[in-house]
Amino acid sequence: QAFFCLLFCIPWGSSCPPSCQCTERAGAKAVLCSSQHLEEIPEDIPRDVVFLKLDANSITRIPSNAFGHLSHLEEIDLSRNAIEKIDGAAFKGVAAGLRSLDLSGNRIRSIPKEALLALNAKLRLANNPWHCECALQEVLWEARLDPDSMRDITCHTAPREEYVGKPLLQVLDAGANFCSVRQRTMDVAMFVTMFGWFAMVIVYVVCYVRHNREDACRHRLKSLPGTQAHAD
């Protein structure tokens, strides 16, 4: 009897990662790791966590499958860290159930669009030093961004100087299209490649025709009577 009491009566918080606090909110388990000077995402987060707060730390990267074992996860707060890199499969395994993801106040300049477009979560991406490009534009158009934070997604760098320092929404409303710039670049590259192949084909055909003409001339010269007599 004492054994079963020890087995089932241990508080859930005893399995918490170091420096974190584990509680229950409305019957759902939460792991609170705010302001703990963490430099990476803890590996020993309990599998049945629903709410995960990792804000105000020093995390610099979200690697692939960082939360893949947390199948019950619904909310992640990674705001006010030092995140610079997010892998394309960073949220693999939690995409279907995640309802909220806060990445605001980091050092994110760019992000693989596949990392966010697979999510159904409401996203907060404000107050990052964004490089305005096609991938960010597609995230803005296709992902579920929090409406209140959209105006704070600002172009820290951009293909044109006039866009720098302006909200991305304002730049797009003014008629900018970063995806069309990339498309034009791809079109030019494809044109150059096709022109190169076409030039190679033309050179080959010219050489082939010239070679056949030379063979034909030699054959005709050999067949002339004077040439045959001289040969005899």
From TrEMBL:
Its main location: membrane. The chain crosses the membrane at residues 188-209. Keywords: Leucine-rich repeat, Membrane, Repeat, Signal, Transmembrane, Transmembrane helix. One of its GO terms (cellular component) is plasma membrane. Residues 1-15 form the signal peptide. It is a single-pass membrane protein. Belongs to the LRRC3 family. This is Leucine-rich repeat-containing protein 3. It comes from Oriolus oriolus (Eurasian golden oriole). The lineage of its organism: Eukaryota, Metazoa, Chordata, Craniata, Vertebrata.
